[in-house]
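Entry:
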Amino acid sequence: WFRENGQSGYFLMYRTEGRVFQAEEVMVGGKWQRFFGYVGQFHIAKVPASEIEFPSEMSLLSHGFEGDLTAPDKWFQRGFYRARKLKWDAPLPFNLKVRNRSGLDQTVSGALLQPDFNTGKLPHAVELKMEYSDKSITEEYCIPESSWQSVPLKTEVQVADAQASGLILQPTEEYVIMTDDLRRFFDVSRHGNYRLQAIFNDPNGVTGSTIDYGFIIGEKSAY
């Protein structure tokens, strides 16, 4: 690599990806501990579960979790180069989920859980962020940040109380914490580009955000 002043240097990177072929619980010092049999590129090892992660394509969150926004018919896309153009009044169903990428069982706190699905309420420690731009990808290869404007939540949107108990997820297990229609939360009636992001803000647990997801609402007169 090169610094701005022209000096060069190097860094050492180890390949840590591999395959897990066995899991076992062993009594160590009077406590049960989980270990995985691990096959790397050049070695085989017995590795503590606390040092193993199972990453996916979801967005990285804190405390060994991942998060993702998904749609049943994939009406939104990662980024805008493949964003779909939707009818102005099309339903916008979505799911918000978390995934345990750690090698250990982990608890999703009650602050991220809803009492019931499809309630029109946000989980206590989850924020949905939406922005709008009337710019077109054909005008700008990348829509400039200055062209995006915040879309506020509807005034009737409520935030659910944190649930008393959490939920234990095993390694690689996913859980849908929210399923609803985006139009219940935002006014999405203008023609143009939208981007959506979920933000996790649990002071005692998961924090972080998903990547931006893009979609385009068509003109009303066009349909």
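The chain has a mean pLDDT of 86.
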